[in-house]
UniProtKB/TrEMBL annotation:
HAMAP family: PriA. SMART domains: DEXDc (SM00487), HELICc (SM00490). Zn(2+) 1 binds at C431, C434, C471, C474. Residues 206-372 form the Helicase ATP-binding domain. The gene is priA. The keyword Transferase does not apply. Pfam families: DEAD, Helicase_C, PriA_3primeBD, PriA_C, Zn_ribbon_PriA. Component of the replication restart primosome. This is Replication restart protein PriA. It catalyses: Couples ATP hydrolysis with the unwinding of duplex DNA by translocating in the 3'-5' direction; ATP + H2O = ADP + phosphate + H(+). It comes from Rhodanobacter lycopersici. GO terms for molecular function: hydrolase activity. Its cofactor is Zn(2+). Binds 2 zinc ions per subunit. Belongs to the helicase family. PriA subfamily.
């Protein structure tokens, strides 16, 4: 058999590429990188197989230029998982491999050394900390380093903006900079005695260490899930094994990193997309060498090599951020389960509001359910009240009931959160004389009014325009903002409560992550009244002990949406936001403003809670044969000309195998038929049986790129799409 290499190259094509081995090459193994000629240039690829029968004549094969790794960079398990993933998500195999490798390792350069830049306290620094002679960021940095030297990834995660403080302290001789290769933190905090429920969860999962089993840990925020993770990671470490902990976004990481480090006494590798590429590659390599024991990361960290794997944990498993929405459209939670099976280790999915997919997996007996029902420290669940907006005089969308509750809260010296999942001042700018409203010319969707930026902004394509002084249609001067965004609520609340700080927390006010952290730190530290206005950024697990009122200003868009996942999302969001109220000793209160106080989903959530509402939603999905009881693949296409989109989708439809037995919806316009000036369309394919769906679509997907219309559109396939 000729010694031909089959190579995955980072290109969006459904194929692998065959090459002759490099002139100086023997003993090449799958998982190693090679430099190959490609097109007019060169590319770094991953050897997927060796000794293959070439797909084209031997005479046509080019020779690979150079082997880049003596030993495979990707081990057999990762290679197997990646092949599975490319196959399952109908992705280009090369893109799957490219996703698994940090950018710095996709270049033809020697591997970086494993050492990480790290910072530690000097003796003078310890004295300065004890004497309390420093303030602000410098003090925070000294305090962080008191638990042991910290690598830059940990520092980035715990103290955004730490570098400026480090430079100051370095100049003063209070800290020093070095390089480390081994784990060297000190455990400084003991575990609390676990509750019976926590202990049972730990024992159950621990009973399956060393073999694959999926668990769903169902417990609201504050119920002690993280303590369960910590106890299990401790056991895994004691066996000399590695633990991977995935979180949906890095904003959740700082508190978690700190907790892991203080409790486990090991370095925590943090892997996320904001990390400098070199650091990310080093962290990945330390995991590969087995030196990194605890890896905390966002979506792409699911590809971290785990040669001594012991446990995989996915926190907030219901979160949509685990789904990659471009390029290789994998789902990190689902891939985590697949990896755990390949690695032969348990996987623990945690959430206070589990996805319907995971609940269905429990029902089918594939996952084992674990529950944390009591909140530790006897924290009472918040009381929830629906406020009927219909009969009330609203002030900028805020009812007298809501305003009174905010007033009572701040009068007690406590903090209130007013939640509205809409940025900007108002979602629509309307002419009262003729009904004209400002639309994005590239999306045909209303522009959001941003008063502070004095602009109309499209939230779909970022188109900006000035605010017209008069109506462009009729010339009237009465242009009125319709509806409320966080900016307007902030303004209304600041006017109403002039003596209380009003803080707005959304993507606009917190473009920089350190700004966000600083805002939150201020609220955590000071037991002073404050009013927070924010979007879902605030719904995530930030522990604000003095926050006792959560007022949800509006949810009606979610109730009226046609998206079949809207009910699930709304229920999750409401429960998560409500969970912000009353985390510490003080009881919490939740108000929910709506024009639909009798909506069955709201009623059920309120009277019976998330689990019951989720069961109901799941029953509806079963009845309508929707996911997770059916399986979907979505073909999307977009182009500047509608005819190109329609043409390609028609060709794709015609190319489906005969007797495919699938349900087909479309070709049809996408829910947003025009976006950023591009016409969009889609074709939805569905089957009750996943195997049938994949069997029919595999050969079809491979053909799509060769359809004559494919060159005139941008197209993509999305398996298990989460937004249609
Ligand atoms: P979750 O991850 O579910 O939000 P955490 O594990 O963060 O919950 O726990 C919430 C709070 O309760 C934390 O402050 C934690 O330290 C505390 N806690 C959790 N379990 C216990 C326990 N068994 N005893 C005392 N305090 C606990
Ligand atoms: Zn007008
Ligand atoms: Zn737009």
């Amino acid at each position: 058999m000729p010694a031909v290499l089959r190579v995955a190259l980072p290109v969006p094509l459904p194929t692998l590429f065959d090459y002759l081995p490099p002139a100086a090459g023997g003993g090449i193994r799958p998982g190693s990188r090679v430099l190959v000629p490609f097109g007019r240039g060169k590319a770094v690829g991953v050897v997927v197989a060796t000794g293959v029968e070439p797909a084209v004549g031997m005479g046509k094969l080019k020779r690979a230029l150079r082997l880049l790794d003596e030993a495979p960079l990707l081990d057999a398990e990762l290679m197997q998982t990646l092949a599975w993933a490319a196959d399952y998500w109908l992705g280009a195999p090369g893109e799957a491999y490219a996703n698994a490798l940090p950018l710095a390792l996709r270049e033809a350069k020697p591997l970086p050394t494993l050492g990480e830049e790290c910072w530690s306290l000097t003796i003078a620094g310890r004295s300065a900390l004890d004497a309390g002679s420093r303030r602000g960021a410098s003090r925070s940095l000294l305090a962080e380093l008191a638990t042991g030297p910290l690598g830059v990834a940990e520092l980035d995660a715990c103290l955004p903006g730490w570098r400026a403080a480090a430079r100051r302290l370095l100049g003063a001789g209070l800290v020093e900079r070095g390089e480390r290769t081994v784990s060297n933190a000190i455990a400084t905090r003991a575990a609390p005695p676990l509750s019976a429920e926590q202990q049972q969860a730990v024992d159950t999962v621990a009973g399956d260490l060393g073999r694959y089993q999926s668990f769903l840990l169902d417990g609201v925020t504050g119920s002690g899930k993280t303590e369960v993770y910590l106890a299990l990671i401790e056991r895994v470490l004691a066996q000399g094994r590695q633990a991977l902990l995935l979180v949906p976004e890095i904003g959740l990481a700082p508190q978690t990193v700190r907790r892991l480090r203080e409790r486990l006494g090991v370095t925590v590798e943090v892997i996320h997309s904001n990390l400098a590429e070199g650091e990310r590659a080093r962290a990945w390599l330390r995991a590969r060498s087995g030196e990194a024991k605890v890896i905390l990361g966002t979506r792409s960290a699911v590809f971290t090599p785990l040669p001594h794997a012991g446990l995989v944990i996915v926190d907030e498993e219901h979160d949509g951020a685990y789904k990659q929405q471009e390029g290789f459209r994998y789902h990190a939670r689902d891939l985590a389960v697949v990896r755990a099976r390949a690695l032969g280790v348990p996987v623990l999915l945690g959430s206070g509001t589990p996805s319907l997919e995971s609940l269905a997996n429990v029902e089918a007996g594939r996952y084992r359910a674990l529950h944390l029902r009591a909140r530790p420290g006897a924290v009472r669940p918040p009381t929830v009240q629906i406020v009927d907006m219909r009969a009330q005089r609203l002030e900028h969308g805020l009812s007298p009931t809501l305003l009174a509750a905010v007033a009572e809260t701040v009068a007690r010296g406590e903090q209130a959160l007013v939640f509205r999942n809409r940025r900007g001042y108002a979602p629509v700018l309307l002419c009262h004389a003729c009904g004209w409203h400002a639309d994005c010319p590239r999306c045909e969707h209303p522009l959001t009014l941003h008063a502070g930026r004095r602009a109309l902004v499209c939230h779909h394509c970022d188109y900006h325009s000035r605010i017209p002084a008069t109506c462009p249609a009729c010339g009237a001067t009465e242009l009125k903002p319709q509806g409320q965004g966080t900016e307007r609520l902030e303004e209304a609340l600041a006017a109403r409560f002039p003596d209380v700080p009003v803080l707005r927390i959304d993507r606009e006010t917190t473009r920089r992550r350190d700004a966000f952290e600083q805002l939150l730190d201020k609220l955590r530290d000071e037991a002073k009244p404050a009013i927070l206005v924010g979007t879902q950024m605030l719904a995530k697990g930030h522990d604000l002990p003095n926050l006792t009122l959560v007022a949800i200003a509006g949810v009606d868009e979610g109730l009226l949406s046609v998206d079949f996942r809207a009910g699930e999302r709304l229920a999750q969001q409401l429960v998560q936001v409500a969970g912000r109220a009353g985390r510490a000793a003080k009881p919490g209160r939740v108000l929910l403003q709506t024009h639909h106080p009798d909506h069955p989903l709201l009623r059920q959530l309120l009277t019976q809670g998330y689990a019951a509402a989720a069961q109901n939603l799941l029953a509806e999905r079963r009845q309508s044969a929707l996911p997770p009881f059916a399986h979907q693949v979505l073909l999307r296409a977009e182009a500047t000309q509608r005819v190109a989109v329609d043409g390609f989708l028609a060709e794709a439809c015609a190319a489906l195998p005969p007797d495919h037995g699938l349900q087909i919806a479309g070709p049809m316009p996408a829910p947003m038929p025009l976006r950023a000036g591009r016409q969009r369309g889609q074709l939805l394919l569905e089957a009750a049986n996943r195997r049938e769906l994949h069997a029919a679509l595999h050969p079809w997907a491979a053909q799509l790129a060769r359809l004559p219309g494919a060159r005139k559109v941008r197209w993509s396939l999305d398996v298990d799409p989460i937004d249609l």
